Amino acid sequence: MVISINNAVNRFLLGIDIFGQTFTINVNGKRNYTTACGGITSVLVIAIVIMSSWNTIINFFWKSNLQVSISSEHNMDSPIIKQDSNNFMLAIGLKQMDNAQLQYFEIEIEQRLYNNNSEQISYIELEKCSNERLLQLQENQAINMTQVLPQQFQGSLLCLKNNQTLHFHQSGPNQLEFLRINIKKCQNFTNSELRCASQDEINQFIRKNRQFTLQLYFGNYILNPYNKGENYAQKFLDDSVTISFIPQKLLRSVTLLLRKYNIMNDDSVMPFQSNEKSEINLISSEDKIEIVDLGRDDDEVYGYIDIKQDIFTTTIKRSCLKLHTLLSQIGGLLQALSLVLGSLIVQYNKLQMSLDLANQIFQFEKNSEVKIEQIKQLKEINNVIEQQKEQSRTEKSPHSQRQLHKSQVDSPYSGIEVNKLFFNVLRSQFEFQTNSERKIQLNQRNRIISKQFNFEKNNTKWVQKFGYTSSKDYFRKSIIGILTRYSPLILNFKFLINQITFGKLFQCNDSKLLEIALKKINMLSDSKYLFEKLNEIDKLKQILLTKDQLTIFNFTSKPIISFKIKNRRASKNSLYKQYNQYIQNKQNLIDDIIYNYEQVLSVYEKIEQTKILYPENHYQTNIIRRLIKQIDPELLTIYRLQKYIESQEVIEQLSEVEQQQNSVNCLISDEV
């Protein structure tokens, strides 16, 4: 019961594993097939992403790349706005160049409240803007007023007295609280320093200046929410609001709207928010409402300015560029570039991978004419050797023929072993003869060896006629000729254009070979083909092995992995890699390639010798025969001829040594 519960829990855990790894077939021992072109493109994509996102990354660290959202909403029941005379700078004055003690009009500020059908009016006290008052406002408002206020107008300006509160509120159509600045007819002043202008003085001013102009100065803001830090709100002295009028002839009214701005600052670069809220009230001269009307003789008010609360509230949200937003922007750009360039590189890598596999599995014969010439030369060399063999059979003695017969191509011994055996036999016979017998034998042997030496010397001169200096040189040049003829296909510009145009352009023999190779690789990499081959291997096991042998075969131990260094035998893939490096001029590996070919082909002699261990019709003999047939006939013939030439060279050297030894022995026998 416990085991079944454990199994059920285990199956459940296996079923919900979201980190499961897929199993794929590797290529050249790697999970992914990569190319230098793909690496260059990857570096190019990364460089483009870095260059394109460099400013964004720098702004991210300096928090200068802000994301701003601005929204406005209609609010009929907005909270009341209270402004203090100390933080709300307001100065009013007529633009007049003459005597500042002469007052043409009276300016008053009313605080008006309309509540349903009732009306309440209170007055805001004004005073002359003295230098002390201007300096106080300059310190409180952080505004340099001396650069804005004209020096000639400063004496005629009126400012709000200290410790006064201004109210701005609008709640529906029945409740309204606002500020009105009236321009009224001047009354007599109790202060002897000021006096009201007469009608003649007013008319004289109009004839000179055409009209009266009331200038309004107030503290305002410029909002630039995209500025980093606290510099998004700049305060300044606004002098853009004026009102022009002609008493009792032209009446003008202006309505200004005081809008509330809620500003939310988020300085955090992390995904969570850290908002700091602030409020700013500003008057936009663009939203002002101006009305012009004709005046009348009984007008007491020649013009007025209303400052009301705006029924719209604006919310500004400022936030730094978040980390996840930065990553998404960079990732999006990387994704777009990967989609555009990656689609081309994926096709290129796929084509290069198929071509690389084809070069490792198949051999491509590009130049058939070179092959015909090499085969022709190979036949000529073989014919010369056959003629030499035939001449050797007729001219040599039976004893010498038996000794030299062991050095033929089909001999079970190689060249050096034949020479050692031949030399030891001659030496043993020479040591156990008497002096007289030795004399007779030496004379006979000298004639045989001299004749044999001359024959073997002529027998190796024909090698030089074909352009070879020795057996090693013959084998080396023959292998290089085969490798050059079967050079691998290289993916170049012509191949790419041929594949892009579906074989319409640059159609050549190499393109045809490439097309055939791609079809074969696609067939070999098909899962159906692989499964069929696995089934065939399983069937071969059933045919070749008995039931008991199959049981032992399936019970064999696993391959052991240890730190012991094993000597690796040369394989076709290793030869391909060495030659591929050789043709790319990376390393001079041709000597290693020739050596590996010699080592591989030397195994052929061992396999050939094992045939004598089995009867003629034994299945192992048939397997060996079929195995030898799988070797390239041209390569096998070159190896046999190389061994024959090598054995002749060794016999020639042995004959020279033997002749010198016989000369010495003759001198010794004469003295005896």
Fold and architecture overview:
The chain is of the alpha+beta class. The protein has four domains: 32-65 and 334-361, no CATH class; 79-260 and 284-311, no CATH class; 363-488 and 646-672, no CATH class; 572-631, no CATH class. It is built from 18 helices and 17 strands. Strands 1, 2, 5, 6, 9, 10, 14, 15, 16 and 17 form a ten-stranded mixed beta sheet that branches. It has a five-stranded antiparallel beta sheet with strand order 7-8-3-12-13. A two-stranded parallel sheet has the order 4-11. A hairpin with a 3-residue loop joins strand 9 (165-171) and strand 10. The longest helix is centred in the middle third of the chain and has 39 residues, at 323-361. It is elongated. It starts with a helix and ends with a helix. The model is unreliable at 403-458 (pLDDT under 50). Residues 388-398 have a biased composition (Basic and acidic residues). It comes from Paramecium octaurelia.
| Main sheet attributes: strand count, strand direction, barrel closure | 10 strands, mixed
Number of strands: 17
Number of domains: 4
Strand content: 15-25%
Q: What multimeric state do the chains show?
A: single chain
Mass-distribution shape: elongated
Determine the mean pLDDT.
Answer: 74
Total number of helices: 18
Which percent bin holds the helix content?
40-55%
**What is the CA-based Rg, rounded?**
55 Å
Low-pLDDT windows of residues: 403-458
> Span between N and C termini?
106 Å
